Amino acid sequence: xxxxxxxxxxxxxxxxxxxxxxxxxxxxxxxxxxxxxxxxxxxxxxxxxxxxxxxxxxxxxxxxxxxxxxxxxxxxxxxxxxxxxxxxxxxxxxxxxxxxxxxxxxxxxxxxxxxxxxxxxxxxxxxxxxxxxxxxxxxxxxxxxxxxxxxxxxxxxxxxxxxxxxxxxxxxxxxxxxxxxxxxxxxxxxxxxxxxxxxxxxxxxxxxxxxxxxxxxxxxxxxxxxxxxxxxxxxxxxxxx
Length: 241
Hints:
Elements: E1 7-11, H1 15-27, E2 31-35, H2 38-47, E3 52-56, H3 64-72, E4 82-86, H4 91-99, E5 104-107, H5 112-129, E6 135-139, E7 142-145, E8 151-153, E9 158-159, H6 163-174, E10 179-180, H7 182-189, H8 197-211, E11 222-225, E12 229-232, E13 236-240
Parallel strand pairs: 1-2, 1-3, 3-4, 4-5
Antiparallel strand pairs: 6-7, 6-13, 7-8, 8-9, 10-12, 11-12
Helix pairs in contact: 6-8, 7-8
């Protein structure tokens, strides 16, 4: 099942890969634009936002990590799913990308069919998470707008969430004061595994704790239940706009 009308912005300095993916994904019903470097990517995304971004790590002017960080720092693009591509087998590269807010990671060489499957999974997740009926969820000193995905602290600060951050936070808010095991968290926040599940989940929880200023030792809001998983130790109330 394709998602017609969904737009993808691809940046890769390899012309052969760009042409291959543009052709393959266009035939699948996506509107695909491509850039060959970071400058072209920034210009293209600012001119016309995309529903999903595919970033190559190694580029001639700047790497995909800096581009991923730039996307996540801008409220206008903060919720756009990001898939990163790399020719490196170094797990450290994958860790960096995920910590910067990438939603998925794919090593080269890869199957265009597998990439398409991951694209569809991320777009479905993004579409599902936007259906929230104008609800705002309040917990501790935070308020999460379920439509705009905007997170606000009581002191007025707004925290930008990536798509993966939002999916994980929503999972905790849907199950307050309940222990969630790593399988449950992993299934809710990632399409496919690119490294051991335990590592993926721990990284995602650590990143969310940073967003929530939950950096005490031990954490106060998202608590580790040894041998079982994680638990949101807060009451959650729903408010409708």
